[in-house]
Write a structure and sequence with these properties.
Length: 120
């Protein structure tokens, strides 16, 4: 499980459910699930479809239907129109915390991580 200095990020909900990394520019859907803007955009571009005259896509977590945020805008820009998620504050704080290697901590050591693991 990903940690930053002993803080479980998965348990605290600061990992994007698509890429499983710390959020980058998190965007929030109407169902309240948040994703990295790039992850969300890739999901939308791959999964958007038309229902009558309206374009929609489903949330990859709860499968709630989300309408296009700005009618008339290209599908490739939709993610940028969803509001920034409140999780942004948490990710900005965690970016400044020194990360410990998960595998090393499991063995009782403490080495600085690059991502979630150290270079051995």
């Amino acid at each position: 499980m990903a940690t930053y200095s002993g803080v479980s990020l998965k348990a605290n909900g600061v990992l994007c459910p698509i890429c499983l990394e710390v959020y980058t520019s998190p965007r929030q859907l109407p169902c309240m699930h948040a994703f990295c803007e790039k992850c969300l955009q890739k999901h939308i571009s791959t999964n958007a479809y038309k229902v009558g005259t309206v374009k929609v896509f489903v949330c990859p977590v709860c499968i709630a239907v989300a309408n296009q945020p700005k009618p008339g805008k290209p599908v490739g820009e939709w993610a940028s129109f969803f509001p920034r998620s409140p999780i942004t504050v948490v990710t900005e704080v965690t970016e400044n915390i020194e990360r410990s290697c998960d595998a090393c901590r499991f063995d009782g050591e403490s080495k600085k991580a690059e991502g979630f693991l150290c270079r051995v």
